[in-house]
Design brief:
Chain lengths: 150, 283
């Protein structure tokens, strides 16, 4: 499943960039994400992703690896995790790009989300919709947090 | 394999509500089990407690009373397809029930369970919306009525509160001129699209139109915009407007692309089924 999102934030690019690397504040914007930890500064992080669709609940202990980093411009990362209780795995390939436009920072991201295992029984459509909702909430939370800092 | 759980066997609705309130997310109401137990066997959901409501009295009957048909939440699909009262008053519901899954599922699965599990590809919720049904939700402190269109919130989610139990489904008893139909289409185990239409035919005029679509999106939906378009029109004019009503209903279905079909395909099928369902009850 491929998702493309864009969010315009009324804040300088340096501030947005700094925010992305402030793991606690950043993770607070990811719905259902908790227990974020820095394993290796700027390279490797861990967290737990908890999501639910009705009564179906998944908890993915997740490792996030930063694969590429271009100062103020670009981040490529991969998040992966498994919920052994329900026998499911997820992998997210994330491409984040930042650019300045007028007095705003435009953050665009492409997320390739793969869900494997029993959770797939819920149906591709339902999972895709849920992932889309999570990404929208995340984008909105980032915008609200950063613009609230003004 | 089904993991261990504790089985609670309350004897009253108040007791069920109290157990639901006390154990929260770790407990679930168990009626027919045709959806719940499958999900539990697959390991997709785990509950420490199942609250067996099959022994509760008074929730397994169909009765007509003062212009309302009351269907107990524990009525099985099989009971509904063979009910003489429903055969007389709500033949569209009987036809729907005859085509739910297979006879083994219909024999065990309950209407209440079907509605509460809110599986997106389930049939009954869509027709019940068009029939103007209301759901009776009870808990320790009282009961309330929920319109069918307000009952379904999202995929697998209803507006029932954590300590509420669905006890009854009420359908207004249709008058002699009231007609309804439910049509579905699919090529997998569950339907890709379901469309329900109900209307009153006064002479050649179509009135009080209710349209609902289901299975295509996360939850069944009433389509007020399409209803308004057709209501008050002559039969012929309404038939001419069906493609427009179908397009509106298709968009309203919030169709999701999945193995059951692409979004635009499902939207198209909504229009086809709406046309067929409408024609079947006005001709």
């Amino acid at each position: 499943m491929q998702f493309e999102k864009q969010v315009e934030i009324l804040a300088p690019r340096e501030k947005v960039w700094k925010f992305i690397w402030d793991i606690d504040r950043f993770i607070a914007c990811v719905p259902g994400c908790k227990d974020a930890k820095t394993v290796e500064e700027g390279k490797r992080y861990s967290a737990t992703m908890v999501e639910r669709v009705g009564p179906f609940k998944v908890e993915f202990p997740t490792t996030i690896e930063v694969l590429e980093r271009e100062e103020l411009t670009h981040i490529k990362a991969q998040a992966s995790g498994a919920d052994n209780k329900i026998g499911s795995r997820m992998k997210i390939d994330l491409d984040v790009n930042l650019r300045e436009q007028d007095n705003m920072t435009v953050v665009s991201f492409i997320a390739g989300v793969d869900i494997l295992g029993k959770l797939a029984a819920l149906g591709h459509g339902i999972i895709k919709r849920k992932a889309d909702q999570v990404l929208d909430q995340f984008a909105q939370a980032v915008k609200t947090t950063l613009e609230g800092d003004q | 394999m089904l993991r261990r759980f504790r089985l609670e066997e309350p004897e009253s609705v108040a007791e069920v509500s109290e157990l639901l309130g006390r154990f929260g997310d770790s407990a679930k109401v168990y009626a027919g089990g045709t959806e719940l137990l499958l999900a539990m066997k697959e390991g997709l959901i785990q509950y420490e407690r199942l609250i067996n409501i099959k022994k509760l009295k008074g929730l397994g009957e169909v009765a007509g009373d003062n212009g309302t048909i009351k269907i107990g939440a524990l009525c099985t699909h099989r009971q509904l397809e063979t009910s003489s009262l429903l055969q007389e008053k709500l033949p569209s519901l009987v036809k729907l029930e005859q085509n739910v899954a297979n006879v083994r599922v219909r024999q065990a699965g309950s209407l209440g369970g079907n509605l509460c599990f809110a599986e997106p590809h389930a049939d009954p919720g869509t027709l019940l919306m068009a029939l103007g049904a209301t759901m009776i939700a009870e808990k320790t402190s009282g009961k309330r009525e929920i319109a069918a269109e307000d009952f379904f919130v999202d995929a697998y989610e209803t507006s029932l509160q954590a300590d509420e139990l669905l006890t009854e489904i009420r359908v207004p008893s249709p008058g002699a001129d009231r007609r309804s139909a439910y049509l579905k289409f699919g090529y997998l185990e569950r339907p890709s699209v379901g469309v329900a239409v109900a209307l009153t035919l006064n002479g050649t005029t179509v009135n009080d139109v209710k349209i609902a679509v289901g299975c295509a999106g996360p939850a069944p939906k009433r389509v007020a915009e399409a209803e308004v378009l057709l209501a008050g029109k002559s039969k012929d004019e309404a038939v001419r407007l069906l493609p427009q009503a179908g397009a509106i209903a298709g968009r309203a279905s919030e169709a999701i692309s999945d193995l059951h079909g692409a979004q635009d395909y499902k939207e198209h099928i909504v229009g086809v089924l709406l046309k067929r369902a409408f024609n079947s009850i006005v001709s």
